[in-house]
Write a structure and sequence with these properties.
The complex is a heterodimer. By secondary structure, chain A is mostly helical. In chain A, about 75% of the residues lie in helices and about 0% in strands. Chain B is about 40% helix and about 15% strand. A 4-stranded mixed sheet of chain B has the order 3-2-4-13, with helices on one face. In chain B, strands 9-10-8-11 form a 4-stranded mixed sheet, sandwiched between helices. In chain B, helix 2 links the parallel strand 2 and strand 3. In chain B, helix 7 crosses helix 9, helix 7 packs across helix 15 and helix 15 packs antiparallel against helix 16. The longest helix of chain B has 15 residues. Chain B is globular and about 65 Å long. The chains are: A mainly alpha, B alpha/beta. At the A-B interface, helix 13 of A face helix 3, helix 10, helix 15 and helix 16 of B.
């Protein structure tokens, strides 16, 4: 016997009916068709959106990555894997990948450690904490371009900080003029501008930790550190995963703040991968080459997201259990 | 002196420019607006916004046209990307293009532009044939500008004991050292585009000024950066960094900082195109500004790197072509509009004059005395080279040797250029 009505209808309607053994009522068939049409109708908007905004552009980008298209001249010439070979031998692209990875690794660690630390500190509901939460989150809602220009006027050679240092007859600090300093400055500002959202997410995660567990651990003699390490942190495992994945994806795509703060300089030292993609595509009129870089970035983001999620699964399963 | 600079304001008879035959294109033909007055619509102009060419400047420039065309509105748009070129290309890719672009553009976008008619007013615009692709003019300019100029602080020169303006690279280096010893920033520069723009203003006359097909020959691997005058300038630049004439923290400054610092009397020398004169006129410093041509390896007077100034292009995708054409014709032909444009940046055009300062006159005289001019956008030049040149020149400030920088440019060109 079939195990479900759905299978029965499908099989019987086409194969068994002529034998006269089992007949499906026409009304049931019509109902099923209506149901199927309704399903398709409800899915269609989402499918059209996903197809039109993600799948088709994705395949178009993939196609472009194998051409030398400059963005205007048609038809684009097929160049095979040339763009991919070129990007892995282009020193400036490799440098931009290195810069992006450095920003991502350091930024992810600092954003999460700082975000979790502040979330714990601001977890109690007091007026001061409410104000501090807003203060911490505020940079996140200001656009990165505005923040970039703002910090550029503060940290530039003729900026506010160095003007004060100059008045005090102190040596100026090369925040944006020395390659190492500039990269460190970029990372600090990226962390400052984005970790507010991590604080909020960790605060939300902390609200879900059952008070009874904390009380039980405390009664059993656990110290505050042990409560955090053995109770709160394991319970926050899903939140940690979400935070890490979000920060990694965000930092792998960092661009606007760098554009406004350093324009990729000095001497290309803060040029990120997305900066390189946009330069290649639009400034240098090499859209095919830019598309190849975009595909590599997309694959990198997928690998990072899936990898992190898989690595965190055991911790999350422990919480679920 | 501030007082003397103001006092020296006079109408520049741009006839001095007439000697530069390359820049002469004949008389203008003021646009008639009577047959376009009935046109209506909103025109979006993607404009090159600078400290001088502000949104308010463009709005004032087009105001008379708007007034004479009821129903026409004009929106001035700033670049949302790194510059006008990249913003336009992003907008072309997204299908949301402006109607008119008010900026110099790379010829890669020429096929997207409406060809200008073979009309008298088009041929009257300066250097119109430099913006010709397959016999079609895709951009028309308001004036011409020159770039191989060195502005200097006359007070600083006196204090440093520099009695005559340097002509050769060696004399220039000596002058920079004296300025540094006198407590000035010898060479005023900054990060971003300024670094390589200044380098090009100095080195281009010795490279493409001498051989206009240099980039084509570079594509054919007949010449290299390492074995050309580029390297001579890279070496000189590296020596200025080493001596402290170019402070290592310069890259933390912006273009506006360079103007502010020079006008505040902090630096002795500022290499910049003639458009700097407008900033100097707007905020006259307490010292007198002089100007001389960029130094050459042998001390000879260089050709001036020139080009079209304040050009306009119309997008084929624009839905009101007749209105766009009427506006562009107005901007590049109407006497009042052209005079305003020329005065805004201190640019030049035969047959037009505007009230200018002593510095305007000094620049015009340099152009008159120059052995010629050449267009900086030479054939074979890769549009991506500007970025690489910026990185290479900035790397001299962050510690790379001239030899390494030249080698990097050669490697980049061999693997990336014109692909």
């Amino acid at each position: 016997m079939p195990t479900s009505n759905t299978t029965t209808v499908g099989v019987v309607a086409h194969a068994a009916a002529p034998a006269g053994g089992f007949r499906v009522r026409p009304g049931a068939l019509r109902a099923k068709r209506r149901e199927t049409l309704a399903d398709i109708g409800m899915l269609a908007p989402a499918l059209i959106l996903v197809g039109g905004l993600i799948v088709i552009p994705l395949f178009f980008a993939l196609y472009l990555s194998f051409t030398d298209w400059d963005g205007f001249t048609l038809p684009a010439q097929f160049v095979g894997p040339h763009n991919y070979i070129r990007l892995f031998t282009d020193p400036s692209v490799l440098h931009s990948i290195g810069v992006t990875l450095l920003i991502t690794v350091i930024g992810t660690i600092v954003c999460n450690v700082l975000g979790l630390g502040l979330a714990i500190a601001l977890n109690r509901n007091t007026r001061l904490n409410a104000f501090l939460r807003v203060l911490v989150f505020y940079p996140y809602i200001v656009g990165p371009v505005i923040l970039g220009f703002l910090w550029s006027s503060i940290l530039g050679t003729d900026g506010a900080v160095n003007s004060v240092l100059g008045q005090l007859k102190q040596p100026l600090l090369p925040f944006l003029s020395d390659p190492t300093w500039a990269l460190a400055t970029v990372i600090c500002i990226i962390v400052w501008s984005s970790f507010g959202v991590n604080v909020v997410l960790y605060l939300a995660g902390l609200q879900t930790v059952p008070e009874s567990l904390i009380e039980a651990a405390t009664i059993d003699g656990a110290s505050p550190w042990q409560v955090f390490w053995r109770v709160k942190l394991p319970m926050l495992a899903p939140t940690v995963t979400v935070n890490v994945v979000l920060v990694v994806i965000g930092l792998l795509r960092v661009y606007e703040l760098i554009l406004a703060l350093t324009e990729g300089g000095p001497a290309g030292s803060t040029q990120s991968f997305v900066y390189s993609i946009l330069s290649s595509s639009f400034q240098n009129s090499q859209l095919g080459y830019g598309a190849a870089q975009s595909i590599v970035l997309m694959i990198g983001i997928i690998i990072a997201s899936v990898g992190i999620t898989a690595a965190r699964r055991r911790s999350e399963q422990a919480v679920a259990a | 002196m501030r007082h003397s600079t103001r006092k020296a304001r006079a109408v520049i008879a741009i006839s001095v420019v007439a000697a530069s035959a390359l820049l002469l294109v004949g008389c203008s033909n003021p646009a008639s607006t009577s047959n376009t007055a009935a046109l209506k619509g909103n025109i979006r102009i993607l404009a090159n916004i600078t400290p001088v060419l502000t949104k308010s400047y463009y709005q004032k420039l087009v105001a008379p046209f708007v007034k004479s065309h009821p129903g026409v509105t004009i929106t001035i748009e700033s670049p949302s990307g790194k510059d006008v070129q990249s913003t336009l290309q992003q907008e072309l890719a997204s299908g949301s293009t402006p109607d008119i672009v008010a900026s110099a553009l790379d010829s890669v976008v020429a096929p997207q532009m409406t060809p200008f008619p073979n009309a008298k007013w088009v041929k009257a615009t300066p250097l119109y044939n430099t913006n010709e692709v397959k016999g079609k003019v895709w951009a028309v300019a308001t004036g011409v500008q020159i770039k191989s100029l060195v502005f200097y602080n006359e007070t600083a020169f006196k204090k440093a004991g520099i009695t005559s303006t340097p002509k050769s690279l060696a004399q220039f280096t000596t002058a920079l050292n004296k300025l540094t010893a006198a407590g000035y920033v010898g060479f005023q520069t900054s990060g971003d585009w300024v670094t390589s723009a200044q380098f090009g203003m100095m080195s281009d006359p010795a490279v493409i000024g001498k051989n206009f097909n240099w980039y084509t020959e570079r594509n054919d691997k007949k010449v290299t950066f390492a074995d050309s005058a580029y390297n001579t300038y890279l070496k000189a630049y590296a020596s200025w960094v080493k001596s402290g004439a170019i402070p290592k923290d310069s890259l933390g400054e912006t273009y506006q900082d360079t103007i502010n610092n020079f006008l505040a009397g902090k630096s002795g020398i500022y290499v910049m195109a003639n458009w700097f004169v407008a900033s100097a006129n707007a905020a006259p410093p307490s010292f007198k500004i002089g100007v001389f041509p960029t130094p050459t390896p042998d001390g000879s007077t260089p050709k001036q790197e020139g080009g079209t100034a304040q050009p306009y292009s119309i997008l084929k995708a624009s839905k009101h072509q007749a209105l766009d054409m009427a506006l562009v014709q107005y901007l590049v032909s109407n006497k009042k509009a052209v005079d305003t444009s020329l005065a805004s940046e201190g640019n030049f055009r035969a047959g037009y004059s505007y009230p200018g300062s002593a510095l305007n006159t000094a620049v015009a005289k340099l152009l008159d005395k120059a052995p010629g001019t050449f267009n900086g956008t030479a054939p074979g030049l890769d549009p991506a080279f500007g970025n690489e040149e910026t990185t290479a020149v900035q790397s001299l400030i962050t510690g790379t040797s001239a030899k390494q920088a030249a080698a990097t440019l050669d490697t980049w060109w061999d693997t990336n250029a014109n692909q």
